[in-house]
């Protein structure tokens, strides 16, 4: 059977391989890992926190423009892990969609609706040959009116799940092992505990202490609902608290 | 469809007359989590494994069994994201039917329209087939019905069927246990026993999902505690 393997195109576009796999989607996951950055997200009792490494490859770069943490609306945040350019494109579309939702329906787009929208868009790229999947894993955070704090993760395959805690990027598996131990008995973390768990998870998998300027932290809290990126001073407070605790 | 540069089909015949992309799609289904359905005299039950990648995943955020209309439900085996597309399209088609005829769509019609969508993706330009098989359970004027739709777009009505990883064992089990006069409660027990056969690990209300529809014609996904009750009865 000469065309048994799809003529070798199964590695170039998203058609099935003989084992029923989509190689392009799998390669997109590899691209996320290859970016060399790890991100962590933790959901507490009344807050959600996401943390990521801030790798500034050149000292001449303006550090404030290097970011993977984006507000989508006042109340929703998105942490992208993977190819920065793909992340920016996704964020732009997500911002547009969230704004249209608010206009069309008269209330703020809920977290899971945005997550589903992003996941459905990613699925289209896995089924249509004309667009490649995005090399981004997106973590969406926000406070849901009915369900409370929510953390969703969307991947290039179009999967999305709600998470109590999760990780993405280069050291994803080590981070998830660390978090599984911490979250085993369904603890209900306070805001401080949530942030500190997220930061210490990152410290533990990277096996180094870092300065406040080397990480980005985004939070959303039930008491004020808005998505906030922490300033370097605020991050410093948490880092100090962690080192004192240990 | 007919995406820009891809105005040619990616699913083409091999020299032996096979459509290999569809075969590969079926392989993708065969590596998916097991799901099954059983038609009883007074209703239908569909069930699936719900194995999540980590304990960190919030299982309440995931629902694999979905309703398409108040009296029709569906479960899939294969690629979750693909199933979401089909569920969305089917729901829209059901609503369009209702708008036109002011009657709820019969199960056979909805199955046919969903199958047509799946077939289109095996022939249109620049797309690949869906990597899911669906089990559609419904109750309408013709009584309880169970249909299986494959990535090729072909569908059949079944008394009982299974799909996914454990398909051969599950089907063998169902063939032994199925009786024509089965009632819905028995069918639920049989469904649980069938899932249990190939289940790795401890089965509980949190890692399986069960959907039922009875003569009241309302499709319902059982809550984890209701599933636990049935599990206790089976012990």
Automatic annotation (TrEMBL), chain B:
<dbReference type="InterPro" id="IPR000426">
    <property type="entry name" value="Proteasome_asu_N"/>
</dbReference>
<keyword id="KW-0539">Nucleus</keyword>
<dbReference type="InterPro" id="IPR029055">
    <property type="entry name" value="Ntn_hydrolases_N"/>
</dbReference>
<dbReference type="GO" id="GO:0005737">
    <property type="term" value="C:cytoplasm"/>
</dbReference>
<comment type="subunit">
    <text>The 20S proteasome core is composed of 28 subunits that are arranged in four stacked rings, resulting in a barrel-shaped structure. The two end rings are each formed by seven alpha subunits, and the two central rings are each formed by seven beta subunits.</text>
</comment>
<dbReference type="GO" id="GO:0019773">
    <property type="term" value="C:proteasome core complex, alpha-subunit complex"/>
</dbReference>
<dbReference type="InterPro" id="IPR023332">
    <property type="entry name" value="Proteasome_alpha-type"/>
</dbReference>
<keyword id="KW-0647">Proteasome</keyword>
<comment type="function">
    <text>The proteasome is a multicatalytic proteinase complex which is characterized by its ability to cleave peptides with Arg, Phe, Tyr, Leu, and Glu adjacent to the leaving group at neutral or slightly basic pH. The proteasome has an ATP-dependent proteolytic activity.</text>
</comment>
<dbReference type="InterPro" id="IPR050115">
    <property type="entry name" value="Proteasome_alpha"/>
</dbReference>
<dbReference type="Pfam" id="PF00227">
    <property type="entry name" value="Proteasome"/>
</dbReference>
<dbReference type="GO" id="GO:0005634">
    <property type="term" value="C:nucleus"/>
</dbReference>
<protein>
    <recommendedName>
        <fullName>Proteasome subunit alpha type</fullName>
    </recommendedName>
</protein>
<dbReference type="Pfam" id="PF10584">
    <property type="entry name" value="Proteasome_A_N"/>
</dbReference>
<comment type="subunit">
    <text>Component of the 20S core complex of the 26S proteasome. The 26S proteasome is composed of a core protease (CP), known as the 20S proteasome, capped at one or both ends by the 19S regulatory particle (RP/PA700). The 20S proteasome core is composed of 28 subunits that are arranged in four stacked rings, resulting in a barrel-shaped structure. The two end rings are each formed by seven alpha subunits, and the two central rings are each formed by seven beta subunits. The catalytic chamber with the active sites is on the inside of the barrel.</text>
</comment>
<dbReference type="InterPro" id="IPR001353">
    <property type="entry name" value="Proteasome_sua/b"/>
</dbReference>
<feature type="domain" description="Proteasome alpha-type subunits">
    <location>
        <begin position="6"/>
        <end position="28"/>
    </location>
</feature>
<keyword id="KW-0963">Cytoplasm</keyword>
<dbReference type="GO" id="GO:0006511">
    <property type="term" value="P:ubiquitin-dependent protein catabolic process"/>
</dbReference>
<comment type="similarity">
    <text>Belongs to the peptidase T1A family.</text>
</comment>
């Amino acid at each position: 059977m000469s065309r048994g393997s799809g003529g070798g195109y199964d590695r170039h576009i998203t058609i099935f391989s003989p084992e029923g796999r989509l190689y392009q989607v799998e390669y997109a996951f590899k691209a996320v890992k290859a970016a060399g950055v790890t991100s962590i997200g933790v959901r507490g009792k009344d807050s959600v926190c996401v943390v990521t490494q801030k790798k500034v490859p050149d000292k001449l770069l303006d550090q404030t423009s290097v970011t993977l943490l984006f507000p989508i609306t006042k109340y929703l945040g998105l942490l992208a892990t993977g190819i920065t350019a793909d992340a920016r494109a996704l964020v732009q579309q997500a911002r547009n969609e969230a704004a249209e939702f608010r206009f069309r329906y008269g209330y703020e787009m809920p977290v899971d609706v945005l997550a589903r929208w992003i996941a459905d868009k990613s699925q289209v790229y896995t089924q249509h040959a004309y667009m490649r999947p995005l090399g981004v894993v997106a973590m969406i955070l926000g406070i849901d009116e009915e369900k409370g704090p929510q953390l969703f993760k969307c991947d290039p395959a179009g999967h999305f799940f709600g998470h109590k805690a999760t990780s993405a990027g280069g050291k994803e598996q080590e981070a998830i092992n660390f978090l599984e131990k911490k979250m085993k008995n369904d603890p209900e973390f306070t805001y401080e505990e949530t942030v500190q768990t997220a930061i210490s998870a990152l410290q533990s998998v990277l096996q180094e202490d870092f300065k406040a300027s080397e990480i980005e932290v985004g939070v959303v809290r039930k008491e004020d609902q808005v998505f906030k990126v922490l300033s370097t001073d605020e991050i410093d407070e948490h880092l100090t608290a962690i080192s004192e605790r240990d | 469809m007919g995406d820009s540069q891809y105005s040619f089909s990616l699913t083409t015949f091999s020299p032996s007359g096979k459509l290999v992309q569809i075969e590969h799609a079926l392989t993708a289904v065969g590596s998916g989590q097991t799901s099954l359905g059983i038609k009883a005299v007074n209703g239908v039950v569909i069930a699936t494994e719900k194995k999540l990648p980590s304990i960190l995943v919030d299982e309440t955020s995931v629902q694999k069994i979905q309703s398409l209309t108040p009296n029709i439900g569906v479960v899939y085996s294969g690629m979750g994201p693909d199933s979401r597309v089909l569920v969305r399209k089917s729901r829209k088609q059901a609503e369009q039917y209702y708008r036109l005829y002011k009657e709820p769509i019969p199960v056979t019609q909805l199955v046919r329209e969903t199958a047509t969508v799946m077939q289109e993706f095996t022939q249109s330009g620049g797309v690949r087939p869906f990597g899911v098989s669906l089990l559609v359970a419904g109750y309408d004027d013709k009584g309880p019905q169970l249909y299986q739709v494959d990535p090729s777009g072909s569908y059949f009505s079944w008394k009982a069927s299974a799909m996914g990883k454990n398909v051969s064992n599950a089907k063998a089990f169902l063939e032994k246990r199925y009786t024509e006069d089965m009632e819905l409660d028995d069918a639920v027990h049989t469904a649980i026993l069938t899932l249990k056969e190939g289940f790795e690990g401890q089965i509980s209300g949190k890692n399986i999902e069960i959907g039922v529809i009875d003569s009241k014609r309302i499709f319902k996904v059982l809550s984890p505690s209701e599933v636990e009750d049935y599990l206790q009865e089976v012990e």
